[in-house]
Amino acid sequence: MAKEKILVIGASGQIGVELTLALRNLYGEENVIASDLREPNQLLKDSGPYVSMDVMNKEMLHVQVIRQNVTQIYLLAAMLSATGEKNPNLAWNLNMQGLLNVLDIAREENLHKVYWPSSIAVFGPTSPKNNCPQQTIIEPTTVYGISKYAGEFWCNYYHQRFGVDVRSIRYPGLISYKSAPGGGTTDYAVEIYNEAIENKKYTCFLEENTYLPMMYMPDAIRGTIELMEAPADKISIRTSYNLSSMSFSPKEIGAEIKKHIPDFTMDYAPDYRQQIANSWPASIDDTVARNDWGWKHEFDLQRMTADMLTNLKK
Ligand code: NAD
Ligand code: AKB
What we know:
By secondary structure, the protein is of the alpha/beta class. Helix content is 43%, strand content 15%. It has two domains: 6-172 and 217-242, NAD(P)-binding Rossmann-like Domain (Rossmann fold); 174-214 and 245-282 and 298-313, UDP-galactose 4-epimerase, domain 1. It has a six-stranded parallel beta sheet. Nicotinamide-adenine-dinucleotide binds at residues 9-10, 12-16, 36-38, 53-56, 76-78, 80, 94, 117, 119, 171, 173-174, 181-182, 184, 186.
């Protein structure tokens, strides 16, 4: 494997913590620099280098890339769907300018690769609801979705025009226990496990039959690394790949938890996030990722629930 020095921006977030740990396993602890505005997560503190950094400060980012001989950037800093609707201008600025800063520096410094995640939030109410395909009508109605869709085209542009090897996945809602989610519409599917263990009850902010595409974090991390390790000639999509593993509703995840915690109860108090969820597909078709670079999920709702509850109880 060529000598790589990786910078993870937004490393203290829900994905960042686990992705940084996985990259450190693969490339060596000293070769993966975690960075964030926030303090490093406890799990990252003793496992490798950390720099405090704002992705909006392009000069500082550029200096770090040169000083640390960075060859790859994973850009995870963003504002998610629910928080984004409360601060549309801030969400647009961070999600767009952060990406453009990274793409510009990648071009100027000839970085080997860039990773930037998109989301199923690019799809809108006019997209197909079930098995939503890679290429279809895409008219997002949240500022987060608009920023992700625009970001996908910036990635494609920097690849076509300047040869930047930038790769991307449209993640579904991600479920994990190592670090908390950061303000998304799918966060209920993480909260529910924590509340089931702590209080044996949960009030869900989405209606009981709201189906959304979801994925367990170990699948998402493995998929991300597999995409980044794939030979460039296997990558036919330079906007962002659909990726899928499961689709369930609050009622279904509640029923699955009840199999492990029989006195668990649940009620519903839908809020502004219901409208966001209603605008997204219920399930995703990821045939292109499966054919191009061999994506295959491992976790379904049953396996994920058993694993989440075991780990959270620890
Ligand atoms: P998160 O909110 O948990 O983490 C984002 C991190 O970025 C935070 O630690 C935050 O402190 C940091 N950050 C914010 N502004 C910054 C700045 N100016 N400079 C440096 N760091 C900054 O988000 P996440 O869930 O880990 O998501 C990571 C990426 O994956 C985002 O692009 C998100 O849109 C995408 N994504 C996430 C999910 C999901 O379910 N978690 C689903 C689809 C796509
Ligand atoms: C959110 O709910 O905003 C994220 C996402 C699906 O992008 N989890």
